[in-house]
Amino acid sequence: MERISTGIEELDRKLSGGYPANKVTLITGIAGSGKTIFGIHFIYKNCLEGRKCMIIATEETPEDILYQASLLGRDLTPYYKSGQLIMENILENRSEMIGQTRYGFKPESLDIEIPNLIELIHEGTECLVVDNIGTFALRVSTKKLRDQFDALNYLVRKRGCTALLIMDESAYNITHQLAEYSVYGSIRLLVRENSYLGKMERYLSIPKMRSTPISPEMSLFEITSEGINIRESGGGSLA
User: Fold this and answer.
1) What pLDDT shows up at residue 108?
2) Does the predicted model carry a pTM greater than 0.85?
């Protein structure tokens, strides 16, 4: 199976070379666990390799994303300016269209359903990040949500994209973790207290990655000025 680099050397090794190509991987975690940074690594690496990339953002402006990437030593600005990287800011665009009420922007005015996101993907896009897809999932009934995720996964694969769907943990849990059943693979990010050291630490687990030998063990990782650094863990079995 063809692999597309995650942009993180240690994670590429864990995934037999990277994310499965033309498949969808889900990344979940609480606020501050590093979800967006995993997306930045993926996009930057594949911009470097000449692929056409896209970010569909629901919570941050392109300026915010470019600034965060620069702090990690991954300058996305040249690719954004050249058009190799396209960023679609859904909330900002919608708020411009509907205007502001006296109470501010209403999230329920965001009437885009999950499969309709495919209409925003530019022709020829090879690597895609949707951050945060939980914005849409919370607006859909549980009965309808599985069908919508299945439809989005099918349409993304048909487009020939390798995609990361980033979802906050609250939306992931409220929707009964249904998204994980539709995607090809999933990565969970956790923040836990190390009682021995008396500090909070970030961990990564890979509960699902089809056609890939993965370890059930969690891996400790850090977010540094040079990006994500994952500590090695043991081997695994085919999932």
Assistant:
1) 41
2) yes
